Amino acid sequence: MTVVLIMICIVLMGIIGIMITEVRRINRELNYINAHDTNAEVTTNTGWPLFSRLAQSVNFSLIKTRAARLKQVEQEKQIKQMLTNLTHDIKTPLTVAIGYIQLLDKNRQNNDNHHQYQRIENNLLEVNYYLHYLMDFNLLQEKNAQLSLSEVDVSKALEGELFNYYDDLTAKGLEMTINIKPAVTIQTDKTLLERVFQNLISNLLKYADGQVVISLQEKDATHFQITFKNQTARPLLANRQSPNRFVTEDVTQTNQSVGLGLDIVRSLITTLGGRFRIQHEDGYFVVMLTFRYQAG
């Protein structure tokens, strides 16, 4: 009797050992499948119905998950393409409409319709303002897949964008103080970096009042900092519902406008590997961008 019990125990221990080994092997296969982009499926080395059914169920779930992922990727591509087409389709007639209203205002015979023309133009420019952010969002989605890295002279890039907006900044009557350290270069995506500067300068044109300070200076031995600092009567506040969104409070109107430009800038800077920080101090709104110097 004792011998029989010993034999039964040995057999049971063998069965349990095989089961544990099989479960561990299936777990390793699942970990590999989850960690890699592969169409592999879970297999079983035993002919036991229990493990065969387990493998079939796991593989069925894997197939459904892959199909859902492929469907999601395809839907995202379609949405991106739709947004790209939409922004380009809106951009052309919007630009034409702005040009026509400016021409009508310039050629008017009297001052009776000036206010109406100005209001229409402002509304069209507002639409154009947010359309640019939608285009930037599309660009950001494309660049997230792969950055086009090259050696970029950040100093020249910033100076170039300021020169492009010189007439607009002058027309707004801003008191500009610019202090840019020359020949600061890093490996980055030039297109995204230029979009960062364009968005921040656009925010100056929309919200700045009085003095503006723009600087590019060394922060420490391994980092440099770009600062956009401007006076404003409309402090930018963190949205309580979403800490990553910003709201500009317009003291001359009852409505509030979402600071989409700063959302875009934050995302662009994160994609480029930099740090983004904002603060409001003594009537000044400050945006600080920090980058690491190029190694070597």
Properties at a glance:
3-stranded antiparallel beta sheet, 296 residues, alpha+beta, elongated, 7 helices, single chain, 2 domains
Task: Tell me the layout of helices and strands.
Elements: H1 2-35, H2 49-106, H3 114-145, E1 149-153, H4 154-164, H5 166-171, E2 175-180, E3 185-189, H6 190-207, E4 211-218, E5 223-231, E6 236-238, E7 246-249, E8 256-258, H7 260-271, E9 275-281, E10 284-292
Helix pairs in contact: 2-3, 3-6, 3-7, 4-6, 6-7
Description:
The protein has 296 residues and is α+β, with helices and mostly antiparallel strands. It has 2 domains: 46-146, Helix Hairpins (Orthogonal Bundle); 147-296, Histidine kinase-like ATPase, C-terminal domain (Heat Shock Protein 90, 2-Layer Sandwich), CATH 3.30.565. It has 7 helices and 10 strands. The strands form 3 sheets. It has a 5-stranded mixed β-sheet. A 3-stranded antiparallel β-sheet has the order 6-7-8. Strand 6 (236-238) and strand 7 (246-249) form a beta hairpin. Helix 2 (49-106) runs antiparallel to helix 3, helix 3 runs antiparallel to helix 6 and helix 3 (114-145) runs parallel beside helix 7 (260-271).
What is the name of the CATH topology of the largest domain?
A: Heat Shock Protein 90
* Mean pLDDT across all amino acids: 80
Query: What portion of residues belong to β-strands?
Result: 15-25%
C-alpha geometry: elongated
Which secondary-structure class do the elements indicate? alpha+beta
What's the architecture of the largest domain in CATH terms? Answer: 2-Layer Sandwich
Main location: membrane
Membrane topology: Multi-pass membrane protein
InterPro entries: HATPase_C_sf, HATPase_dom, His_kinase_dom, HisK_dim/P_dom, HisK_dim/P_sf, HssS/ArlS-like, Sig_transdc_His_kin/Pase_MprB
Enzyme class: transferase
